[in-house]
Design brief:
Shape: globular
Number of helices: 7
CATH class: Alpha Beta
CATH topology: Cathepsin B, Chain A
Number of strands: 10
Number of domains: 1
Largest sheet: 7 strands, antiparallel
Structural class: alpha+beta
Length: 256
């Protein structure tokens, strides 16, 4: 992992990636102290609301980033293609939601724009350096596609954001996660932490099924960007307990 100081209050970290054929990663971390002012946990009224199981409809087809480290652009595009954001803005900026090639092109262009503003050395094309979710949100806001974005630093805050729509999640991706079980869970093997970090990945959380007996057994469903033949038709699941473990390493969660 490489890291460096961009400017006062900002830190970036670039993961070393273990490349798996057809399963590229490419998400880097951009930690900006100014994000603390935009945490959902700062909103007392929002945090006082109850949580419910929810599921957001992904209108856009599952995308496939192929051999390009564009997971951040794919996740951002996926969020625009998921309700309620699709009706609000996605339907006006995205191509036909069933045209995978055109949608993937949109995602790659979004990724390319993010590599210009993210502060990491190199831009795509030609340098496939990966990027950050923060850079994706900054590009979409600069275009006027979204009005803003918020962050969460706790598991509860993450679920609070998910009550209102899909959530972009940047996470360290472990070697064990490449092979989900038959139900699409990536964390069924209790020894997944010992498999080692393969890199950083950006995904889209679209649902949560709450467990009222043990909240940390609640199940989060994600849409990945490795095509519909991976996982459960392009999706995977993870328990909130795993989210909490990953959050101890990586505090980057945000919603458009």
């Amino acid at each position: 992992m490489f890291h460096g100081l961009l400017e006062t209050g900002q830190l970036y970290l670039k993961f070393d990636e273990a490349v798996h054929e057809g399963m590229r990663l490419g998400r880097n971390m951009w930690l900006d102290g100014r994000s603390l002012a935009h945490m959902v946990e700062n909103d007392v009224r929002e945090m006082g609301k109850s949580l419910n199981s929810c599921q957001w409809e992904r209108v856009l087809t599952v995308l496939d980033q192929g051999q390009l480290g564009s997971c951040t652009g794919n996740a951002g595009t996926g969020a625009l293609g998921t309700q309620p954001f699709y009706d609000a803005v996605g339907s006006t900026v995205l191509p036909d939601p069933n045209d995978e090639a055109a949608a993937e092109q949109f995602a790659v262009q979004l990724y390319a724009a993010a590599t210009v503003v993210d502060g990491y050395p190199g831009t795509y094309p030609p340098d496939d350096t990966g990027s950050s979710g923060l850079a994706i949100c900054k590009v979409l806001k600069s275009r006027g596609t979204i009005g803003g974005y918020r962050w969460a630093r706790t598991a509860y805050g993450f679920l609070r954001l998910l009550q209102n729509g899909p959530v972009l999640q940047g996470m360290p991706w472990y070697q064990a996660f490449f092979t989900p079980d038959r139900q699409g869970f990536i964390d069924s093997d209790p020894h997944w932490p010992s498999s080692g970090v393969a890199g950083g990945h950006e995904v889209e959380a679209v649902a949560v099924e709450l467990d009222t007996t043990d909240a940390f057994n609640s199940v989060i469903t994600y849409v990945n960007s490795w095509g519909s033949n991976w996982g459960d038709s392009g999706r995977f699941r993870m328990r909130l307990r795993t989210y909490e473990q990953l959050n101890g390493v990586d505090l980057k969660q945000y919603r458009m």
